[in-house]
Write the C-alpha coordinates for this entry.
Amino acid sequence: MEKLTIIKVGGKIVEEDASLQQLLNDFAQIEGHKVLVHGGGRSATKLAEKLGIETKMVNGRRITDKETLDITVMVYAGLVNKKIVAKLQEIEINALGLTGADMNIIRSDIRPVKEINYGFVGDVKQVDGKKLSLLIREGIVPILAPLTHDGNGNMLNTNADTIAGEAAKALALYFEVKLIYCFEMKGVMADITKEDSVIRDIDRQKFEELVKTAVVKDGMIPKLENAFDCITAGVKEVTITQSTDIKGINGTTIH
Amino acid sequence: MEKLTIIKVGGKIVEEDASLQQLLNDFAQIEGHKVLVHGGGRSATKLAEKLGIETKMVNGRRITDKETLDITVMVYAGLVNKKIVAKLQEIEINALGLTGADMNIIRSDIRPVKEINYGFVGDVKQVDGKKLSLLIREGIVPILAPLTHDGNGNMLNTNADTIAGEAAKALALYFEVKLIYCFEMKGVMADITKEDSVIRDIDRQKFEELVKTAVVKDGMIPKLENAFDCITAGVKEVTITQSTDIKGINGTTIH
Protein backbone atom coordinates (compact mmCIF):
# COMPACT_ATOMS: atom_id res chain seq x y z
CA MET A 1 0.00 0.00 0.00
CA GLU A 2 1.11 3.58 -0.59
CA LYS A 3 2.18 5.54 2.45
CA LEU A 4 0.22 8.39 4.00
CA THR A 5 1.28 10.65 6.85
CA ILE A 6 -1.38 12.47 8.86
CA ILE A 7 -0.14 15.28 11.04
CA LYS A 8 -2.16 17.00 13.72
CA VAL A 9 -0.89 20.34 14.99
CA GLY A 10 -2.40 22.47 17.72
CA GLY A 11 -3.45 26.06 17.62
CA LYS A 12 -0.34 27.77 18.89
CA ILE A 13 2.04 26.70 16.15
CA VAL A 14 -0.30 27.69 13.31
CA GLU A 15 -1.21 31.02 14.88
CA GLU A 16 2.23 32.61 14.90
CA ASP A 17 3.68 33.50 11.52
CA ALA A 18 7.26 32.33 12.15
CA SER A 19 6.36 28.95 13.66
CA LEU A 20 3.67 28.41 11.00
CA GLN A 21 6.17 29.00 8.18
CA GLN A 22 8.62 26.56 9.76
CA LEU A 23 5.87 23.99 10.20
CA LEU A 24 4.76 24.29 6.57
CA ASN A 25 8.33 24.02 5.28
CA ASP A 26 8.78 20.84 7.33
CA PHE A 27 5.40 19.58 6.15
CA ALA A 28 6.38 20.17 2.51
CA GLN A 29 9.38 17.92 2.97
CA ILE A 30 7.40 14.92 4.10
CA GLU A 31 7.49 12.38 1.31
CA GLY A 32 4.44 10.65 -0.07
CA HIS A 33 0.80 11.41 0.54
CA LYS A 34 -0.09 13.63 3.46
CA VAL A 35 -2.91 15.30 5.39
CA LEU A 36 -2.72 18.16 7.88
CA VAL A 37 -5.26 18.57 10.70
CA HIS A 38 -5.08 21.88 12.55
CA GLY A 39 -6.50 23.58 15.61
CA GLY A 40 -7.03 27.28 16.16
CA GLY A 41 -8.52 27.66 19.62
CA ARG A 42 -6.33 30.57 20.69
CA SER A 43 -7.37 32.69 17.71
CA ALA A 44 -11.01 31.82 18.34
CA THR A 45 -10.68 32.90 21.97
CA LYS A 46 -8.95 36.12 20.86
CA LEU A 47 -11.69 36.96 18.35
CA ALA A 48 -14.37 36.18 20.95
CA GLU A 49 -12.67 38.57 23.37
CA LYS A 50 -12.53 41.34 20.77
CA LEU A 51 -16.24 40.82 20.12
CA GLY A 52 -17.02 40.84 23.81
CA ILE A 53 -18.26 37.27 23.76
CA GLU A 54 -17.38 35.27 26.83
CA THR A 55 -15.49 32.01 26.22
CA LYS A 56 -17.00 29.37 28.48
CA MET A 57 -14.82 26.36 29.26
CA VAL A 58 -15.76 23.30 31.34
CA ASN A 59 -12.97 20.80 32.11
CA GLY A 60 -10.83 22.43 29.44
CA ARG A 61 -13.51 22.08 26.79
CA ARG A 62 -15.17 24.97 25.01
CA ILE A 63 -18.92 25.40 25.36
CA THR A 64 -20.07 26.21 21.85
CA ASP A 65 -23.22 28.33 21.81
CA LYS A 66 -24.49 29.79 18.50
CA GLU A 67 -22.28 32.89 18.66
CA THR A 68 -19.23 30.82 19.58
CA LEU A 69 -19.95 28.40 16.75
CA ASP A 70 -19.90 31.27 14.25
CA ILE A 71 -16.58 32.38 15.68
CA THR A 72 -15.04 28.91 15.40
CA VAL A 73 -16.28 28.59 11.81
CA MET A 74 -14.82 31.99 10.92
CA VAL A 75 -11.48 31.29 12.57
CA TYR A 76 -10.97 27.58 11.83
CA ALA A 77 -12.48 27.28 8.31
CA GLY A 78 -11.63 30.87 7.35
CA LEU A 79 -8.66 32.59 8.90
CA VAL A 80 -6.47 29.66 9.96
CA ASN A 81 -7.36 27.16 7.24
CA LYS A 82 -6.99 29.56 4.31
CA LYS A 83 -3.74 31.02 5.63
CA ILE A 84 -2.32 27.48 5.65
CA VAL A 85 -3.72 26.68 2.20
CA ALA A 86 -2.37 29.89 0.58
CA LYS A 87 1.05 29.41 2.15
CA LEU A 88 1.24 25.77 1.05
CA GLN A 89 0.26 26.72 -2.49
CA GLU A 90 3.15 29.19 -2.43
CA ILE A 91 5.55 26.26 -1.91
CA GLU A 92 3.84 24.10 -4.55
CA ILE A 93 1.85 21.87 -2.23
CA ASN A 94 -1.59 21.36 -3.74
CA ALA A 95 -3.54 22.03 -0.56
CA LEU A 96 -7.33 21.86 -0.29
CA GLY A 97 -8.97 23.20 2.85
CA LEU A 98 -11.87 21.11 4.10
CA THR A 99 -14.34 21.00 6.92
CA GLY A 100 -16.36 17.85 7.51
CA ALA A 101 -19.30 19.44 5.68
CA ASP A 102 -17.36 19.82 2.44
CA MET A 103 -18.14 16.83 0.24
CA ASN A 104 -19.75 15.35 3.36
CA ILE A 105 -16.31 14.13 4.40
CA ILE A 106 -16.99 13.93 8.15
CA ARG A 107 -20.43 13.52 9.64
CA SER A 108 -20.99 14.00 13.37
CA ASP A 109 -23.71 13.70 15.93
CA ILE A 110 -24.27 16.70 18.12
CA ARG A 111 -22.99 15.72 21.57
CA PRO A 112 -25.86 14.52 23.77
CA VAL A 113 -26.62 16.69 26.80
CA LYS A 114 -25.80 14.89 30.05
CA GLU A 115 -24.49 16.92 32.99
CA ILE A 116 -23.07 19.50 30.62
CA ASN A 117 -24.53 21.01 27.47
CA TYR A 118 -21.52 21.52 25.22
CA GLY A 119 -23.71 23.14 22.57
CA PHE A 120 -22.76 22.86 18.90
CA VAL A 121 -20.08 20.22 19.44
CA GLY A 122 -19.83 17.15 17.26
CA ASP A 123 -18.83 13.59 18.09
CA VAL A 124 -17.52 12.06 14.87
CA LYS A 125 -19.85 9.43 13.42
CA GLN A 126 -18.40 8.72 9.99
CA VAL A 127 -15.40 9.71 7.89
CA ASP A 128 -15.71 9.14 4.15
CA GLY A 129 -12.29 7.58 3.69
CA LYS A 130 -13.05 6.61 0.12
CA LYS A 131 -13.71 10.16 -1.04
CA LEU A 132 -10.71 11.47 0.89
CA SER A 133 -8.50 8.75 -0.57
CA LEU A 134 -9.55 9.65 -4.12
CA LEU A 135 -8.55 13.27 -3.55
CA ILE A 136 -5.25 12.19 -2.00
CA ARG A 137 -4.43 9.88 -4.90
CA GLU A 138 -4.98 12.86 -7.23
CA GLY A 139 -2.08 14.58 -5.50
CA ILE A 140 -4.28 16.79 -3.36
CA VAL A 141 -3.23 17.52 0.22
CA PRO A 142 -6.30 17.89 2.46
CA ILE A 143 -6.04 20.49 5.21
CA LEU A 144 -8.70 19.59 7.75
CA ALA A 145 -10.24 22.24 10.00
CA PRO A 146 -11.68 21.04 13.33
CA LEU A 147 -15.27 21.34 12.18
CA THR A 148 -17.80 18.77 11.06
CA HIS A 149 -21.53 18.82 10.29
CA ASP A 150 -24.59 16.97 11.47
CA GLY A 151 -26.39 16.47 8.16
CA ASN A 152 -29.18 18.72 9.41
CA GLY A 153 -27.60 21.90 8.16
CA ASN A 154 -25.45 22.65 11.20
CA MET A 155 -21.71 22.99 11.41
CA LEU A 156 -20.30 21.47 14.61
CA ASN A 157 -17.16 22.35 16.54
CA THR A 158 -15.10 19.15 16.74
CA ASN A 159 -11.93 18.17 18.57
CA ALA A 160 -8.95 18.18 16.18
CA ASP A 161 -7.30 15.16 17.86
CA THR A 162 -10.49 13.18 17.28
CA ILE A 163 -10.67 14.26 13.64
CA ALA A 164 -7.05 13.20 13.09
CA GLY A 165 -7.64 9.82 14.75
CA GLU A 166 -10.90 9.07 12.95
CA ALA A 167 -9.46 10.18 9.59
CA ALA A 168 -6.44 7.93 10.19
CA LYS A 169 -8.69 4.94 10.91
CA ALA A 170 -10.85 5.56 7.83
CA LEU A 171 -7.82 6.05 5.58
CA ALA A 172 -6.07 2.93 6.91
CA LEU A 173 -8.23 0.94 4.47
CA TYR A 174 -6.53 2.71 1.56
CA PHE A 175 -3.02 3.59 2.75
CA GLU A 176 -0.28 2.56 5.14
CA VAL A 177 -1.03 5.34 7.62
CA LYS A 178 1.39 7.02 10.00
CA LEU A 179 -0.35 9.42 12.41
CA ILE A 180 1.66 12.10 14.16
CA TYR A 181 0.21 14.08 17.06
CA CYS A 182 2.16 17.25 17.83
CA PHE A 183 1.84 18.71 21.30
CA GLU A 184 3.84 20.81 23.75
CA MET A 185 6.18 18.07 25.02
CA LYS A 186 8.85 15.98 23.36
CA GLY A 187 6.83 12.81 23.74
CA VAL A 188 5.74 10.54 26.57
CA MET A 189 8.30 11.24 29.30
CA ALA A 190 9.63 8.70 31.83
CA ASP A 191 10.41 11.68 34.08
CA ILE A 192 8.63 14.91 33.27
CA THR A 193 11.46 16.94 34.84
CA LYS A 194 14.08 15.37 32.53
CA GLU A 195 14.15 16.57 28.92
CA ASP A 196 16.01 13.50 27.72
CA SER A 197 13.65 10.97 29.24
CA VAL A 198 11.40 10.46 26.21
CA ILE A 199 10.12 6.89 26.03
CA ARG A 200 10.77 6.09 22.38
CA ASP A 201 8.49 3.09 21.88
CA ILE A 202 5.34 1.91 23.58
CA ASP A 203 3.42 -1.23 22.80
CA ARG A 204 0.33 -2.38 24.61
CA GLN A 205 2.21 -4.44 27.18
CA LYS A 206 4.55 -1.56 28.00
CA PHE A 207 1.60 0.81 28.21
CA GLU A 208 -0.01 -1.35 30.89
CA GLU A 209 3.24 -1.42 32.88
CA LEU A 210 3.61 2.38 32.57
CA VAL A 211 0.08 2.90 33.86
CA LYS A 212 0.61 0.41 36.69
CA THR A 213 3.79 2.19 37.81
CA ALA A 214 2.08 5.61 37.39
CA VAL A 215 4.73 6.82 34.95
CA VAL A 216 1.83 7.46 32.59
CA LYS A 217 -1.16 9.12 34.21
CA ASP A 218 -3.89 11.77 33.94
CA GLY A 219 -4.46 13.21 30.44
CA MET A 220 -1.78 11.02 28.89
CA ILE A 221 -3.84 7.86 29.50
CA PRO A 222 -6.75 8.74 27.16
CA LYS A 223 -4.22 10.10 24.60
CA LEU A 224 -2.46 6.74 24.52
CA GLU A 225 -5.69 4.76 24.61
CA ASN A 226 -6.83 6.73 21.59
CA ALA A 227 -3.53 5.90 19.87
CA PHE A 228 -3.98 2.16 20.55
CA ASP A 229 -7.53 2.38 19.18
CA CYS A 230 -6.00 3.66 15.95
CA ILE A 231 -3.49 0.79 15.89
CA THR A 232 -6.29 -1.72 16.46
CA ALA A 233 -8.18 -0.16 13.55
CA GLY A 234 -5.24 -0.70 11.19
CA VAL A 235 -3.14 2.45 11.51
CA LYS A 236 0.52 1.44 11.14
CA GLU A 237 1.93 3.67 13.87
CA VAL A 238 1.05 6.69 15.98
CA THR A 239 3.73 9.12 17.15
CA ILE A 240 3.34 11.70 19.89
CA THR A 241 5.90 14.45 19.56
CA GLN A 242 6.72 18.18 19.59
CA SER A 243 5.42 20.61 16.98
CA THR A 244 9.00 21.30 15.93
CA ASP A 245 9.40 17.60 15.08
CA ILE A 246 6.52 16.88 12.74
CA LYS A 247 8.44 14.06 11.12
CA GLY A 248 8.21 12.38 14.51
CA ILE A 249 11.89 11.51 14.67
CA ASN A 250 12.37 12.19 18.38
CA GLY A 251 8.96 11.48 19.83
CA THR A 252 7.19 8.47 21.26
CA THR A 253 5.96 5.87 18.80
CA ILE A 254 2.97 3.71 19.63
CA HIS A 255 2.58 0.48 17.69
CA MET B 1 -21.53 18.74 -24.20
CA GLU B 2 -23.10 18.33 -20.77
CA LYS B 3 -24.85 21.35 -19.31
CA LEU B 4 -23.56 23.45 -16.44
CA THR B 5 -25.33 26.31 -14.69
CA ILE B 6 -23.26 28.87 -12.78
CA ILE B 7 -25.22 31.11 -10.43
CA LYS B 8 -23.85 34.20 -8.80
CA VAL B 9 -25.76 35.60 -5.84
CA GLY B 10 -24.95 38.71 -3.84
CA GLY B 11 -24.46 39.11 -0.16
CA LYS B 12 -27.94 40.07 0.94
CA ILE B 13 -29.75 36.92 -0.11
CA VAL B 14 -27.22 34.58 1.52
CA GLU B 15 -27.03 36.57 4.73
CA GLU B 16 -30.65 36.22 5.83
CA ASP B 17 -31.74 32.78 6.90
CA ALA B 18 -35.16 32.76 5.20
CA SER B 19 -33.97 34.02 1.82
CA LEU B 20 -30.91 31.76 1.96
CA GLN B 21 -33.07 28.68 2.54
CA GLN B 22 -35.33 29.62 -0.37
CA LEU B 23 -32.29 30.21 -2.59
CA LEU B 24 -30.77 26.84 -1.70
CA ASN B 25 -34.05 25.02 -2.29
CA ASP B 26 -34.28 26.66 -5.72
CA PHE B 27 -30.63 25.88 -6.38
CA ALA B 28 -31.16 22.21 -5.50
CA GLN B 29 -33.85 21.99 -8.17
CA ILE B 30 -31.60 23.12 -11.00
CA GLU B 31 -30.92 20.11 -13.18
CA GLY B 32 -27.49 19.05 -14.30
CA HIS B 33 -24.12 20.26 -13.12
CA LYS B 34 -23.99 23.48 -11.16
CA VAL B 35 -21.75 25.96 -9.39
CA LEU B 36 -22.69 28.67 -6.88
CA VAL B 37 -20.66 31.86 -6.47
CA HIS B 38 -21.56 33.96 -3.46
CA GLY B 39 -20.83 37.37 -1.95
CA GLY B 40 -20.95 38.34 1.70
CA GLY B 41 -20.01 42.00 1.85
CA ARG B 42 -22.75 43.01 4.28
CA SER B 43 -21.66 40.45 6.87
CA ALA B 44 -18.04 41.53 6.43
CA THR B 45 -19.03 45.16 7.03
CA LYS B 46 -21.04 44.12 10.09
CA LEU B 47 -18.15 42.15 11.58
CA ALA B 48 -15.74 45.03 10.88
CA GLU B 49 -18.12 47.38 12.71
CA LYS B 50 -18.30 45.08 15.73
CA LEU B 51 -14.50 44.94 15.79
CA GLY B 52 -14.25 48.71 15.48
CA ILE B 53 -12.49 48.49 12.13
CA GLU B 54 -13.47 51.18 9.68
CA THR B 55 -14.74 49.98 6.29
CA LYS B 56 -13.17 52.18 3.63
CA MET B 57 -14.97 52.33 0.30
CA VAL B 58 -13.89 54.20 -2.84
CA ASN B 59 -16.34 54.27 -5.76
CA GLY B 60 -18.34 51.48 -4.13
CA ARG B 61 -15.28 49.26 -3.80
CA ARG B 62 -13.83 48.06 -0.53
CA ILE B 63 -10.26 49.02 0.36
CA THR B 64 -8.78 45.80 1.73
CA ASP B 65 -6.01 46.43 4.25
CA LYS B 66 -4.55 43.51 6.23
CA GLU B 67 -7.20 43.64 8.97
CA THR B 68 -10.00 43.89 6.43
CA LEU B 69 -8.54 40.97 4.46
CA ASP B 70 -8.69 38.79 7.57
CA ILE B 71 -12.31 39.80 8.04
CA THR B 72 -13.27 38.95 4.45
CA VAL B 73 -11.50 35.58 4.73
CA MET B 74 -13.33 34.82 7.99
CA VAL B 75 -16.71 35.86 6.65
CA TYR B 76 -16.55 34.69 3.02
CA ALA B 77 -14.55 31.44 3.36
CA GLY B 78 -15.78 30.72 6.89
CA LEU B 79 -19.16 31.97 7.99
CA VAL B 80 -21.02 32.39 4.69
CA ASN B 81 -19.40 29.60 2.67
CA LYS B 82 -19.73 26.90 5.34
CA LYS B 83 -23.31 27.86 6.17
CA ILE B 84 -24.18 27.32 2.50
CA VAL B 85 -22.22 24.05 2.30
CA ALA B 86 -23.80 22.58 5.46
CA LYS B 87 -27.29 23.57 4.34
CA LEU B 88 -26.79 22.09 0.87
CA GLN B 89 -25.48 18.85 2.37
CA GLU B 90 -28.70 18.73 4.39
CA ILE B 91 -30.68 18.59 1.13
CA GLU B 92 -28.33 16.04 -0.45
CA ILE B 93 -26.35 18.40 -2.67
CA ASN B 94 -22.70 17.38 -2.51
CA ALA B 95 -21.33 20.87 -1.96
CA LEU B 96 -17.63 21.67 -1.67
CA GLY B 97 -16.65 25.15 -0.49
CA LEU B 98 -13.67 26.61 -2.31
CA THR B 99 -11.61 29.75 -2.42
CA GLY B 100 -9.23 30.32 -5.32
CA ALA B 101 -6.34 29.12 -3.14
CA ASP B 102 -7.87 25.68 -2.63
CA MET B 103 -6.35 23.34 -5.22
CA ASN B 104 -4.95 26.50 -6.82
CA ILE B 105 -8.30 26.88 -8.60
CA ILE B 106 -8.12 30.67 -9.16
CA ARG B 107 -4.87 32.61 -9.26
CA SER B 108 -4.92 36.40 -9.17
CA ASP B 109 -2.55 39.31 -9.41
CA ILE B 110 -2.74 41.83 -6.63
CA ARG B 111 -4.33 44.95 -8.17
CA PRO B 112 -1.64 47.43 -9.22
CA VAL B 113 -1.65 50.73 -7.35
CA LYS B 114 -2.62 53.63 -9.62
CA GLU B 115 -4.60 56.52 -8.16
CA ILE B 116 -6.05 54.22 -5.51
CA ASN B 117 -4.41 51.49 -3.47
CA TYR B 118 -7.11 48.87 -3.09
CA GLY B 119 -4.85 46.75 -0.89
CA PHE B 120 -5.26 42.97 -0.86
CA VAL B 121 -7.56 42.83 -3.88
CA GLY B 122 -7.04 40.37 -6.70
CA ASP B 123 -7.60 40.67 -10.43
CA VAL B 124 -8.21 37.17 -11.73
CA LYS B 125 -5.33 35.83 -13.84
CA GLN B 126 -6.20 32.18 -14.31
CA VAL B 127 -8.98 29.76 -13.50
CA ASP B 128 -8.10 26.06 -13.56
CA GLY B 129 -11.15 24.95 -15.52
CA LYS B 130 -9.78 21.45 -15.95
CA LYS B 131 -9.50 20.77 -12.21
CA LEU B 132 -12.90 22.34 -11.57
CA SER B 133 -14.46 20.30 -14.38
CA LEU B 134 -13.08 17.06 -12.92
CA LEU B 135 -14.69 17.82 -9.56
CA ILE B 136 -17.97 18.74 -11.25
CA ARG B 137 -18.03 15.52 -13.29
CA GLU B 138 -17.63 13.61 -10.01
CA GLY B 139 -20.97 15.07 -8.91
CA ILE B 140 -19.44 17.70 -6.68
CA VAL B 141 -21.07 21.13 -6.54
CA PRO B 142 -18.42 23.84 -6.02
CA ILE B 143 -19.45 26.77 -3.82
CA LEU B 144 -17.03 29.58 -4.66
CA ALA B 145 -16.24 32.27 -2.10
CA PRO B 146 -15.09 35.65 -3.50
CA LEU B 147 -11.45 35.08 -2.57
CA THR B 148 -8.43 34.12 -4.64
CA HIS B 149 -4.69 33.91 -3.98
CA ASP B 150 -1.57 35.36 -5.54
CA GLY B 151 0.73 32.33 -5.40
CA ASN B 152 2.94 34.20 -2.94
CA GLY B 153 1.09 33.04 0.10
CA ASN B 154 -1.55 35.79 0.20
CA MET B 155 -5.30 35.47 0.01
CA LEU B 156 -6.88 38.24 -2.05
CA ASN B 157 -10.34 39.75 -1.84
CA THR B 158 -11.91 39.33 -5.29
CA ASN B 159 -15.11 40.56 -6.89
CA ALA B 160 -17.71 37.77 -7.00
CA ASP B 161 -19.09 38.88 -10.41
CA THR B 162 -15.59 38.59 -11.85
CA ILE B 163 -15.09 35.15 -10.34
CA ALA B 164 -18.39 33.96 -11.80
CA GLY B 165 -17.53 35.35 -15.25
CA GLU B 166 -13.99 33.98 -15.33
CA ALA B 167 -15.10 30.57 -14.03
CA ALA B 168 -17.81 30.49 -16.74
CA LYS B 169 -15.25 31.24 -19.45
CA ALA B 170 -12.81 28.59 -18.17
CA LEU B 171 -15.54 25.97 -17.85
CA ALA B 172 -16.97 26.72 -21.31
CA LEU B 173 -14.23 24.43 -22.68
CA TYR B 174 -15.78 21.50 -20.82
CA PHE B 175 -19.51 22.21 -20.57
CA GLU B 176 -22.35 24.07 -22.23
CA VAL B 177 -22.37 26.90 -19.69
CA LYS B 178 -25.30 29.05 -18.65
CA LEU B 179 -24.29 31.91 -16.35
CA ILE B 180 -26.90 33.60 -14.17
CA TYR B 181 -26.18 36.86 -12.39
CA CYS B 182 -28.66 37.64 -9.63
CA PHE B 183 -29.03 41.25 -8.55
CA GLU B 184 -31.64 43.53 -7.05
CA MET B 185 -33.68 44.18 -10.21
CA LYS B 186 -35.78 41.95 -12.42
CA GLY B 187 -33.35 42.32 -15.31
CA VAL B 188 -32.34 45.04 -17.75
CA MET B 189 -35.32 47.43 -17.73
CA ALA B 190 -36.59 49.44 -20.69
CA ASP B 191 -38.11 51.82 -18.16
CA ILE B 192 -36.77 51.62 -14.64
CA THR B 193 -40.06 52.94 -13.21
CA LYS B 194 -42.05 50.11 -14.82
CA GLU B 195 -41.80 46.68 -13.22
CA ASP B 196 -43.02 44.91 -16.36
CA SER B 197 -40.51 46.51 -18.72
CA VAL B 198 -37.81 43.81 -18.55
CA ILE B 199 -36.01 43.49 -21.87
CA ARG B 200 -36.01 39.72 -22.30
CA ASP B 201 -33.26 39.29 -24.90
CA ILE B 202 -30.23 41.32 -25.83
CA ASP B 203 -27.77 40.52 -28.57
CA ARG B 204 -24.79 42.67 -29.48
CA GLN B 205 -26.67 44.73 -32.05
CA LYS B 206 -29.52 45.45 -29.67
CA PHE B 207 -27.02 46.35 -26.94
CA GLU B 208 -25.46 49.01 -29.15
CA GLU B 209 -28.92 50.47 -29.90
CA LEU B 210 -29.82 50.48 -26.20
CA VAL B 211 -26.62 52.32 -25.33
CA LYS B 212 -27.13 54.81 -28.18
CA THR B 213 -30.68 55.59 -27.01
CA ALA B 214 -29.47 55.76 -23.36
CA VAL B 215 -31.94 53.08 -22.26
CA VAL B 216 -28.85 51.26 -20.94
CA LYS B 217 -26.40 53.50 -19.09
CA ASP B 218 -24.09 53.86 -16.08
CA GLY B 219 -23.26 50.67 -14.17
CA MET B 220 -25.36 48.52 -16.51
CA ILE B 221 -22.95 49.11 -19.41
CA PRO B 222 -19.91 47.33 -17.87
CA LYS B 223 -22.25 44.58 -16.57
CA LEU B 224 -23.45 43.89 -20.10
CA GLU B 225 -20.00 44.27 -21.65
CA ASN B 226 -18.78 41.67 -19.17
CA ALA B 227 -21.66 39.40 -20.25
CA PHE B 228 -20.73 39.77 -23.95
CA ASP B 229 -17.10 38.96 -23.09
CA CYS B 230 -18.36 35.68 -21.65
CA ILE B 231 -20.37 34.96 -24.79
CA THR B 232 -17.33 35.70 -26.97
CA ALA B 233 -15.32 33.27 -24.83
CA GLY B 234 -17.80 30.48 -25.49
CA VAL B 235 -20.38 30.77 -22.70
CA LYS B 236 -23.77 29.76 -24.16
CA GLU B 237 -25.87 32.44 -22.47
CA VAL B 238 -25.75 34.93 -19.64
CA THR B 239 -28.87 35.92 -17.74
CA ILE B 240 -29.26 38.92 -15.47
CA THR B 241 -32.15 38.48 -13.07
CA GLN B 242 -33.49 38.77 -9.53
CA SER B 243 -32.26 36.63 -6.64
CA THR B 244 -35.73 35.13 -6.34
CA ASP B 245 -35.44 33.88 -9.93
CA ILE B 246 -32.19 31.94 -9.97
CA LYS B 247 -33.44 29.77 -12.80
CA GLY B 248 -33.40 32.98 -14.82
CA ILE B 249 -36.90 32.49 -16.20
CA ASN B 250 -37.98 36.12 -16.02
CA GLY B 251 -34.72 37.99 -16.44
CA THR B 252 -32.74 39.40 -19.35
CA THR B 253 -30.78 36.90 -21.42
CA ILE B 254 -27.66 37.94 -23.28
CA HIS B 255 -26.52 35.81 -26.18
